[in-house]
């Protein structure tokens, strides 16, 4: 869903999908109809929306589209990305996109405003999840090993902070940045119990 407006991106899923799993349907809920359609050769893993961009994540490729005319602006090759990991800044005038790189534990940062690409070796293990601040300045990452969360400056790749977990192994499901409180991390110390921690 694009913020709180009437535009949604729909992708088929489940045992009996209404739409194909390799298509993104742009739905206008006010008009109750599809106003656009994007087709791909493989399954769509995730979709991210901005007021000016649509980002579609496939297993090993990401497509960036102009929202107004659905023209492809950029294509990015990634390592295998079955979870559809991708984050994009939401502030107007600051388009920053983060996705897995081509190596295990690597993240790729695209600064479209300055036309700069930054690769950050965030972890030794595969990336489990990451989060980006709304202005795209800071990035939080966690690996599948799950023992710590790292905070990076996206412009120069500097490691700013490293937060160790409360147990030997964490299963980090998500950690969105909160405007007032920093990172709100959903941490699992085992498969049955979970905690929400503020950093």
UniProtKB/TrEMBL annotation:
Source organism superkingdom: Eukaryota
Listed A to Z, the keywords are: Repeat, WD repeat
So which residues are the signal peptide here? none
Report the family membership: Belongs to the WD repeat PROPPIN family.
Name of the molecule in the record:
Autophagy-related protein 18a-like
Q: Which organism is it from?
A: Nelumbo nucifera (Sacred lotus)
